[in-house]
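Troubleshooting: if your tokenizer reports a length mismatch, compare against these two reference records.
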Amino acid sequence: ANLLVSAIVATFYYKYPGMPTLTGPVHTITGSFMGLLIAFRTNTGYERFWEARKVWEQIQNRCRNMARIIANYVVGDDQMVLRVMQILTAYPYALKQHLRGQRNLEEMRRVLGDRDVALLEESSNMPQTLCMMLSLTIRKLLVNSAGQIENQYLWETLDRHIQELVSHIGASERLATTPVPLSYSRHTSRFLSIWTLTFPFFMASYCHPYISVFAYGFVCWALFGTEEVGHIIEEPFGIPRSKKKADANGSKQDKEEHNTENLPLLRYCEAIKYDIEELQGQYSLLPTTAPQCTISYTTIVVDNEEEMFIANGDQDKWGQSRDPSS
């Protein structure tokens, strides 16, 4: 439409070269102001995009660290270790669907059993439900069946990781549900439209009318393209939409699509899944009770013969209690 207007204006000035044009600093001043608006719009979108990426980086680190901790420090309870790894694998998939308004239970069945999937089907917040499952799974680290405290420090460490996973849900929801204010977006778009529509009248006084058409096309491409980039990257998780699609029988079905996918969330989920599966394989091959993982007492020769390093977690780092006369 803008190019059509520019072509009409160029033809008008070509036939009537004596017609007045827009001169003066009006477009120069307003153009600088419009550039600031577009730059702010784009910077705001990029900040949202980068913050979302940092949130998912923290999610990846939390899942990996929690899987590593549970595999190394929970001894004699393979069921708990494997259960925690299973839930951690499902967590990013659930969060991805939650942020996009999806509910693909078939994807969840790849890592969870039917009972867990049935529970998620009734949940309005699947990642939060998985965090609750994690808390219930590690609960016996705090109190055993006899009501005695087992390993409070390990439980507190794991629970802090679960709390951070819950915090990541809130941080992601904030980005997904709080776009740039609509009034600001509308003002920028309207101002840009009016400026570009009047720009051909300004260009007519500087160059040949038909040359101004090509210059005008380049200016519109640069300005509208930059504004569109700001609109796209402000939704880092994608924009869900419901679309009617007719099947082979002619009936209509709701199909959820996404206009954009700035962050490849599925790739992040698969990376977490593969990393946890690798940790699970290492846990099965090298359990903490394996002979090759047992550390024996080792004496280190140092300058002071009265100091002896004992590489055993149950002893002090340095053999201070050793009798010097022995």
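Reference record two:
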Amino acid sequence: GCGLVAPAPLEGMRVLDLGCGAGRDAYVLAQMVGEGGEVTGVDMTEAQLDVARAYEEFHREAFGYAKSNVRFLHGFIESLADVPELQPSEQFDVIVSNCVLNLSPDKPAVLREAFRLLRPGGELYFSDIYASRRVPSSLHSHKELWGECISGALYWHDFLTLAKSAGFHDPRLVADAPVDVTDETLRALVAPIEFYSATYRLFKLPLAGSAEDAERGGLEGYRCEDYGLAAAYLGTIPDAEKVFSLDKGHRFDAGKIVPVCGNTYNMLKQSRLGRHFRFYGGFETHFGVFEGCGRDMPFGRPERLIAAYGACC
């Protein structure tokens, strides 16, 4: 994987782990959601699921729960509706995935299924590998590059387009780091493409076509519209009492009133994060777009300069 995907706060949440494998992340998440929450892992490989299920009782006892709060299901992340337990929509508060999307042959279907299964205000929080330009289709069949999550990496701009098409209107970059292809032979095949490990969070909120829609909780596409809004973090999220970072461009020091765009305001207010913030202002007056709201590739840029796809206010 690309790193543990565990977006706080998770206490009491219902979480779905796409491509859970042998259950490493799922069991960490099971402890974070607590006995009142639930974690569901889905994977296509029965052997991996057998390993995950073998440790269910061990973790129940270790966590001190009366009953296990995890379950593992066999299925393909492109067709989760084929899994009987996952046919009902809007089941989950949070969906996570750890370096799995790039291995899927139908990435749009994965995003659509995630959107379907999320409750309104829920989020898809996941890490994956992205490319600075489109990887040639001739490399998709290269077994080593595919297995290393390189040849299946999405061009970052194509990912944003797919996310929007699935209903996630303002993807937020949380963190990124360059991925070096160290093997000289493989590096020659992919050069000059650059690769990045990146974590994104995507909120399920309706598309707003006007200030009135935004006031009702919608997102205005990728735009950072300025309504004179602000939010103050209350310091109430466990293990983030002093500082909470929504994404790479939005850091909230506890007690400090921070100006935010309409999209950021609604991501905070309309999600499980809302009870951890105090909100100021309304959508009555529009002051235009936040200065510096850019559209360049967001990876590798200093946090103080991040200005891509909503992370600019």
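Descriptive notes for reference record two:
- The first strand starts at residue 14 and ends at 18.
- The radius of gyration is 20 Å.
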